[in-house]
Amino acid sequence: MRILVVEDERRLCNIIKRGLLEEGYAVDTAYDGEDGEYLAETTPYDLVILDIMLPKKDGVEVCQELRQKKVNTPILMLTAKDTVEDRVKGLDAGADDYLVKPFAFNELLARVRALLRREGLSKSPRLQVGDLTLDTLTREAWRAQRKFELTSKEYVILEYFMRHPNMVITRTMLEEHAWDYEFDSISNLIDVYIRRLRRKIDERGQNSLIQTVRGAGYRLREL
After folding, report:
1. pLDDT for 209-219, tens place per residue?
2. Residue 161: helix, strand or coil by DSSP?
3. Could you tell me the residue range of the domain that residue 216 belongs to?
4. 166 Cβ partners below 8 Å, 6+ apart?
5. Any long-range contacts for 203-209 (C-beta under 8 Å, 24+ apart)?
6. Do residues 6 and 36 touch, judged by C-beta distance below 8 A?
7. Longest C-alpha distance within the chain, in Å?
8. How does pLDDT run across 5-59, given as a tens digit for each residue?
9. How many domains does the chain have?
10. Which of 102, 132, 184, 213 has a CA that sits 20 to 30 A from residue 161's CA?
């Protein structure tokens, strides 16, 4: 999944980004409200982590304008102010959750996972497509009774397929969901990861679940 972090404290921004990358998320960053708002408007993010105190345009104003423009991406607001009035102001602007600095990174991750489950996604921690199962909390995967291990990026790609079974997933959709703006779109990296997933998911004698749709992309079929 792809997350935008809008935070002007660059050290904190880099810490958040590094931690999210280690969890397998694709992450873009912005250091002021104007750049953050532009990215949130023009890119299909799964979540925005938005600081309130930002240069050029504060987070509350950014949140309000995104909601006015019908951008419904979940927003987790960060602030150093721990008063009821400030929390209410952020939530009334359209934020989905609120986290006060300083915070433990594990709490940030828990709130991120909760918001990603809440917005139009399955609330169950387990995804099931045919005999393929993925636990979104433990990141464990099974085909029938056989368990297999996933790297962080393999998990992100497989989760995306399993949330859209039988749907044609284009390379562009995978790029936008699983990689940030630094991704080289002319590389064959997507093909490499699809081959890796097929080797892990399919054993000899089993039908391949991830199909290639010629000229279009890929599809996870539900047997």
Report:
1. 898 888 888 99
2. helix
3. 126-220
4. 219, 220, 221, 222
5. 203/143, 203/146, 206/143, 209/129, 209/130, 209/132, 209/143
6. yes
7. 61
8. 999 999 999 999 989 988 878 889 999 999 999 999 988 888 999 999 999 999 9
9. 2
10. 184
